[in-house]
Design goal:
The chain has helices at residues 48-55, 83-87, 95-98, 105-116, 121-134, 139-142, 151-163, 181-196, 208-214, 232-237, 242-249, 254-260; strands spanning 6-15, 22-32, 37-41, 63-68, 71-72, 74-75, 78-79, 88-91, 169-173, 200-205, 217-222, 225-231. Helix 8 (181-196) links the parallel strand 9 and strand 10. The protein is of the alpha/beta class and 261 residues long. It has one domain (6-260): 3-Layer(aba) Sandwich (Rossmann fold). The model is unreliable at 255-261 (pLDDT under 50). The protein is built from twelve helices and twelve strands.
Length: 261
């Protein structure tokens, strides 16, 4: 689609070779428009995290292409060169594993601020404290290292680091899976606010409740391929594929809600 911010066309990713080859992603196509949230949902092993890495330029597909605007994300062998690198950021499933354990939350974000802009150390620290504050991380907690923070706080630091680049799109891979229900709600409300500010979000999750809350379009993934896609509300209310129906039926409390309706 010519107006898409990011578009994947018939993307394939295979790991291994010969009899041990595993097709993690099979002929997948999708698009993300400016200012919208899409969901990629499926069980563990469905290929959704691999696809997220493809969109972020961290995994090169064996076949197919990913476009940013109307150009391939790969130029001279590297993904998102120059200014494009700033515009696409990723938040990983494990916030602890993606943060440097030796430095504080403030230093983590300040490093990113200085990398993406010409700022002095003091100015980067000031901007980082403001950004962390917007994410709900206090100045006191900003001085802590990852192991001293809760899972929700670490994920907020990860989001702050990604947003320090002022991206156009945020690719979030299972961002709520490692945090408790309260922190999940806070993070989703934060994402909702970012969408209101014009950010695009690709949300990868096995949690259909999270997908339904945040996204306006959804892609359902099984065994590396999309089995269904469409407007989130329509897919949830009238699923067409047996796998989608199975996923929706497994949402906690769904039958109880239906019985009380």
């Amino acid at each position: 689609m010519s107006d898409a911010l990011i578009e994947a066309r018939e993307v394939c990713v295979t790991f291994g070779s010969g009899s041990r080859a595993v097709r993690a992603v099979r002929d997948v196509s999708l698009h993300i428009m400016a200012g919208e949230a899409i969901g990629i949902v499926g069980e563990s092993g469905s290929g959704k995290s691999t696809l997220a890495r493809v969109l972020a330029g961290l995994q090169r597909p064996d076949k197919g292409e990913v476009l940013f605007g109307d150009e391939s994300i790969y130029q001279r062998g590297r993904a998102y060169r120059g200014e494009k690198r700033r515009l696409v950021q990723m938040v990983f499933q494990d916030p602890y594993g993606s943060l440097n354990p030796r430095i504080t939350a403030l230093s983590t974000v300040a490093e990113a601020v200085r990398f993406h802009g010409e700022h002095s150390r003091s100015e980067a620290n000031r901007l980082s404290l403001e950004l962390l504050g917007q994410m709900g991380v206090s100045e006191r907690d900003a001085g802590k290292k990852p192991r001293q923070l809760s899972g929700g706080q670490r994920q907020r630091v990860s989001v702050a680091r990604a947003l320090s680049a002022h991206p156009e799109i945020l690719i979030a891979d299972e961002p709520t899976s490692a945090i408790d229900q309260s922190a999940q709600a806070q993070l989703l409300n934060l994402f909702q606010g970012l969408l209101g500010d014009g950010l695009s979000i690709a949300l990868v999750s096995h949690d259909l409740g999270v997908i339904r809350y945040l996204t306006n379009r959804v892609y359902v993934m099984k065994d590396g391929a999309f089995v269904e896609s469409g407007l989130t509300q329509e897919v949830f209310e009238n699923p067409q594929h047996a796998y989608t129906k199975q996923l929706i039926a497994s949402i906690p409390g769904r039958h109880l809600q239906g019985a009380g309706a």
